[in-house]
Design brief:
By secondary structure, the chain is α+β, with helices and mostly antiparallel strands. The chain has two domains: about 120 residues, MutM-like, N-terminal (N-terminal domain of MutM-like DNA repair proteins); about 120 residues, Helicase, Ruva Protein, domain 3. About 25% of the residues lie in helices and about 20% in strands. The strands form three sheets. It has a four-stranded antiparallel sheet with strand order 1-6-7-5. Strands 2-3-4-8 form a four-stranded antiparallel sheet, covered by helices on one side. Helix 3 crosses helix 6. It is elongated. The two termini are about 30 Å apart. The structure holds a DNA duplex.
DNA sequence: TTAATCACCTGAGGGC
DNA sequence: TGCCCTCAGGTGATTA
């Protein structure tokens, strides 16, 4: 399931194959994703050169002179670069065909992903303009989180998963970062101390950096752009480890549901 | 304004 | 082996 490290891994994987390539056409097999793929996309992108592949939060942005393609991988999406003659398989919804005979292919079994197009600056698109800072940027700090959290009653886990606060912290990495920082996931965000936010900020940055270096976390659905799995799963301390001993104190890991999401934590180490 | 819940979708896995 | 049910999860929309 793609979170920020998986999206960044994908961006790095496809970038060298896609940048400076000229699109000949776009083949849409299934337009009903999270939102319908814009009609006329093939005509708009025909003969366009992809100038850059960038990322904002979990959105990938393919930029060309005509505008910007905004891609979201949703829950189960993956992008691969392969020969355009490779027969599509089930759930291969869209191909961007290039003049060099290659194509960029989106597969998304659960169809929670999205393919959108905008002529405006992508950061001003309605989906992107209200997003919080990138967690690995200098704008994401303990001071920022502390100030944003004052008087907030929601749980700290929901708080750090709110993309208006900070982008890219999904369910897996929220559990892992809170464990590293020693913060109970059900604690009210407004009750967390400045010192704990310092630990949490560091933990979020660390866990995301490590996951990017490992090529993401492969659970059920995620493979990298080369089709290989990511390896950060081997570094998870609590996620998916209900009943297993805590790596710090050996007390069994607890699972409960917070904001409709499975949450894993140690009641001994996280207060 | 804030917080909680719903809806979308399909594959995996468990129970029978 | 096959069927049925539950669970998983990102995020915008809706509701309270």
């Amino acid at each position: 399931m793609p979170e920020l490290p998986e999206v960044e891994t994908t961006r790095r994987g496809i970038r060298k194959h896609v940048e400076k390539q000229t699109i000949t056409k776009v083949i849409i097999r299934q337009s009903q994703l999270r939102w319908p793929i814009p009609t006329g996309l093939s005509k708009i992108l025909s003969k366009q050169v992809i100038k850059s592949v960038s990322r904002r939060a979990k959105y990938l942005i393919l930029s060309c002179d005509a505008g910007h393609v905004i891609l979201h991988l949703g829950m189960s999406g993956s992008l691969r670069v392969l020969n355009a003659n490779t027969p599509p398989e089930k759930h291969d919804h869209i191909d961007f065909i290039f003049t060099n005979g290659q194509c960029l292919r989106l597969r998304d079994p659960r169809r929670f992903g999205a393919v959108l197009f905008t002529k405006e600056e992508p950061t001003q698109h309605k989906l992107l303009k209200s997003l919080g800072p990138e967690p690995l940027s200098k704008y994401f700090s303990d001071h920022y989180l502390f100030e944003k959290s004052r008087k907030r009653q929601l749980t700290i886990k929901s708080f750090i998963m709110d993309s208006k606060i900070v982008v890219g912290v999904g369910n897996i990495y929220a559990s892992e970062a809170l464990f590293r920082a020693g913060i109970h996931p059900k604690r009210a965000a407004g009750k967390v101390t400045k010192e704990k936010y310092n630990l949490l900020t560091t933990a979020i940055k660390e866990v995301l950096k490590e996951a990017i270096q490992a090529g993401g976390t492969s659970l059920r659905d995620f493979t990298k752009s080369d089709g290989k799995p990511g390896y950060f799963r081997q570094s998870l301390n609590v996620y998916g480890k209900k009943g297993e001993p805590c790596p710090n104190c050996n007390k069994p890991i607890t699972q409960s549901v917070i904001a409709q999401r499975s949450t894993y934590y140690c009641t001994q180490c996280q207060k």
